[in-house]
Amino acid sequence: FRQAWFAIESQPEFDASKGFAGLAIWAKGVRLKKSWDWRWLLLLLLLLPFLFRGCPESDPIAGKTKSFIIVLDRSSSMQPHFAKVQEEARKTLNSINDSSLKRFLGFFGRAYYVDLISYDSEAKSLFNELRPVTKETAEQVLQEINSLQSGGGTNLKSAMTLAEQEIKKHGKETTLCIITDGADGSIAGMSKEIESDKTAVESRFGMTKGDRPLVHANTLSPRLLDVTNRKARVAPEGPEENQLAHFSSLLYGAFGFTGTAFGQRGMPASYKGWNTLLWLTRMAIIAGAIAYVYPRLRAQF
């Protein structure tokens, strides 16, 4: 009765002298009621490991956000560097790819979003919007970089115009990972425009609830793709890189490496230990649930 979650509310006296006949009489007079054991509530504690979040990387992707747009200069001077850019993009996308299984097992952090904008004298967007990073979208980004054809002229402003539209539509803080050699007359013009009326320029990207623009513009020059120490701060060299650094500073970004995207990877050992413990606990709970339920379902059917 107890295993079936019943309790005996009342019962007649059992006359053992009548044997099985007495047992039948007793059974007819037994009154049962549904019951439950409060200790079953302790099973809810098993849900706690699925509510805890794993430790994020010490420096989130692209510095401050989980949405990022790779803005790639496809002018002829950049063509020799396309392979390196693709390799950096592959490392980044592989490290943040949120598989459905991973999310099911309780890694419920915010999704990553990505797009690729390439430009010469004109700009084009791969998705025309920011899309969640999946295996499919990651491959599309890598294939697009691999198939880029270099063009003439360099006009970052055309790419920024597309980025403004996508970020405002996306509505989340987004980092631009701008990869260019800086030989571009439009950069100085955009910097002057921001300095003369910063509020108007920022509003084109959309604003957060705290009245901060949704954009962070990080810039990289080709020489930095060969740097092995991604944790060290790099100083701009020459007029082109100084121009890029100044432009980034005006749009809440940085010149050089920040975050997982084309920069520092990994996390402290204590973070890794916690994430491993959390993952093992979740796996143990799921395995225990399967071990308990499967034989009972099999016996029933």
Please render the helix and strand layout as text.
Layout: E1 6-10, H1 19-29, E2 31-34, H2 48-51, E3 67-73, H3 82-96, H4 100-104, E4 113-119, E5 123-125, E6 131-132, H5 135-146, H6 156-170, E7 174-179, H7 185-196, H8 198-203, E8 215-220, H9 238-250, H10 269-300
Helix pairs in contact: 3-5, 7-9
Short summary of the structure?
This protein has 301 residues and is an alpha/beta fold. It has helices at 19-29, 48-51, 82-96, 100-104, 135-146, 156-170, 185-196, 198-203, 238-250, 269-300, and strands at 6-10, 31-34, 67-73, 113-119, 123-125, 131-132, 174-179, 215-220.
Give a verbal description of the structure:
With 301 residues, the chain is an alpha/beta fold. The strands form 2 sheets. Strands 3, 4, 5, 6, 7 and 8 form a 6-stranded mixed beta sheet that branches. It has a two-stranded antiparallel sheet with strand order 1-2. Strand 4 and strand 5 form a beta hairpin. Helix 3 packs antiparallel against helix 5 and helix 7 runs parallel beside helix 9. The two termini are 22 Å apart. About 4% of the residues have low confidence.
